[in-house]
Amino acid sequence: MSAAGRRWGRRQRALLWGVLLAVWEAAWGQLRYSVPEEMPKGSFVGDLAKDLGLQLPALQDGGVRIVSEGRTQYFTLHEKTGHLVTAERIDREQLCESVQQCVLRCELIVEGEMKVYGIQVEIMDVNDNTPTFREAKIELRMSEATAPGSRFPLPNAHDPDSGRNSLQSYELSGDEHFSLAVQAGPGGDQRPELVLTKALDREEAAFHELVLRASDGGDPARTGTALIRVTVLDANDNAPVFSQAEYTVRVPEDVPVGSILITVTASDDDEGLYGQVKYSLNKITEKALQTFRLDGDTGAISLLQSLDFEDGVSYELEVQAHDGGGLFDTTKIEITVTDVNDNVPEISVRSAVKEISEDSPSGTVVALLHVRDRDSGANGEVHCSLDEGVPFRLEKSFEDYYRVVTARELDREQVSEYNVTVRAADGGSPPLQSSAVLALRVLDVNDNAPVFAQERYSARLAENNAAGALVLTVRASDADWGQNARVRYRLSEGRVRGAPLSSYVSVRAETGALYALRSFDYEQVRELELWVRAEDGGAPALSSNVSVRLLIVDENDNAPQVLYPPPAPAASLSSGAGWSGVELAPRSSEPGALPAGSLTRWLVLAVAAVSCLFLAFLLLLLALRLRRWRREQLLAASSGALRGVPVSHFVGIDGVRAFLQSYSHEVTLTADSRKSQLRFSGASCCDTLPARPLPDEPAPLLGDGNPA
């Protein structure tokens, strides 16, 4: 099998394991896939539609999308299949230079449901890098007096691949004076050393050339080489010695470029050329080489470019000090970058609605936000908040995701638009803040009925008006918006004098103007009571009613009419048979008789009869009153003297009294018996008895005398 075939087979096996791992993770409520690096754009990563139970129509409508942090989007969603595919060719070594496990994270946003799912994709390494030495030719100087068994550190080879594809072994070839030893470093890395196995003799050989070979564990293996040239020098007694075996320095990430971070020093007791010490970087990563600079004469390490705690927390350098005779010493420098609150919180709107119905229930999601701060510790702790007084609240969703939901029901008639400001502040001192504004428009729901400007309407209309005359205009307003606020007017059903109300008046549906459809006659219709209904355009429609009173004003449009005698028809007048304004009375007519027909005569007789009956009733009533009064007077006289009459005016025989004098009385009678008067006149009395008779003559009884 060819090398290309073997590589293809390994990629397919890695892809299969990645799919199996994704299925297992989905069963536990997580989404985790793996994919080999360097796959072409559009390569399959995982079946999201199947693993999450998503419907393909929702994917095709654009309601589901993939988002990830950073400027480059490495994955996308295939709308037709629901597969997660690569959006770019992925280089694991570029993304995860010093990380053993390279994992890229992204999120799946479901727009309609405002849900977010976390996705982790592990980038599997392929053996696409060869071990390389920073310098292809290594120059070493050794004194001929160097004792066999001495060790000299060699530069490390670098292979950015991981696992078995990374650097695995070193080999040395070319000379019997030297051998190779490999030491394990603190981090598990391999450090090659050149071991002197046989004494050197400058006169025998002034130079020795060796080949150092570095190999990885790939299949097939990749190999890189470096040429080592050893120059043999005269005797050198002392080697340089660093003041510290290891240097540690902590620097803030905002230190200015060009600043000296640390200075290493080494001393050599020799004099002259053998006492001159030079410094060089023996082991350094490519990133550190672009970040720091070593002054070979002074040992000062300065900053070449700005530090960023979020990109690199620590750096490890190995510096070598060597003299002119080829002797050297090495030291390690650990540079730790401390975090500074130099990153403001970042608010990303992953999904948001621009419109929401006013009848949406409390808890409706309107936006999905992602908030992060690239700082660490308290500087990276973010607190999110909303402005007070808005009907929304924040809810934690997934890791650094927040949902903006409604806190209560909305009312478009009070607030039709919201600009919701989301604020994020970190825990630094002083804290850094950022904000994002969500523009939200509230959609109308038909929840308001039309309201008339007046509780009732009334108008006055003169009779004999023209048909189509404007009577009045009713107006109603609706607090809703759009079609829901469109008001139309109509008359409620009714009847006037047996005819439909709509035959008398009409209302214009758009304006509420009330018109008279006919000319009114005060003598027939004096007022109209009607109801006008205002109805909006909602579904279902809401309506309200108002009472309208229309008063017809009288005008002097009728001449006096002669009720009797009735006018004769025109034909009768022309023939002379009708009434001509003159009537003839017979000679036998009594005084006071009317020149009227039989009808008028009977009418007069009826009135006279009623009048006579009324007069007879009055006379009867008066007679009854007089009789009662007379009886009361007689009863009063029998019980004692008449009131106002002296006792001397009475005479009595055997208990019977009689008047001695006659009286004349004035009696005044009225129709009201309570106001009748009886008045005695003192000057009109006279004796009613004759002169006292002689004793021998008998006295006459009362009433036996002459009535005259």
Automatic annotation (TrEMBL):
Q: Which GO terms describe its cellular component?
A: plasma membrane
What's one GO BP annotation on this UniProt entry? homophilic cell adhesion via plasma membrane adhesion molecules
Q: What topology in the membrane does the UniProt record assign?
A: Single-pass membrane protein
> What residue intervals traverse the membrane?
602-624
Q: Which UniProt keywords apply?
A: Calcium, Cell adhesion, Glycoprotein, Membrane, Repeat, Signal, Transmembrane, Transmembrane helix
Which Gene3D superfamilies would you find in this protein's record?
Cadherins (2.60.40.60)
Please state the span of the N-terminal signal peptide per the UniProt entry: 1-29
According to its UniProt record, what is one Pfam family this protein matches? Cadherin_2
Annotated region Disordered: the residues are: 146-169
Using the UniProt record, give the first listed, main subcellular location.
Answer: membrane
GO terms, molecular function: calcium ion binding
PANTHER family, per database record: CADHERIN-87A (PTHR24028), PROTOCADHERIN GAMMA-A3 (PTHR24028:SF234)
Q: What is this protein called?
A: PCDGA protein
Query: According to the entry, what is the taxonomic lineage of the organism?
Result: Eukaryota, Metazoa, Chordata, Craniata, Vertebrata
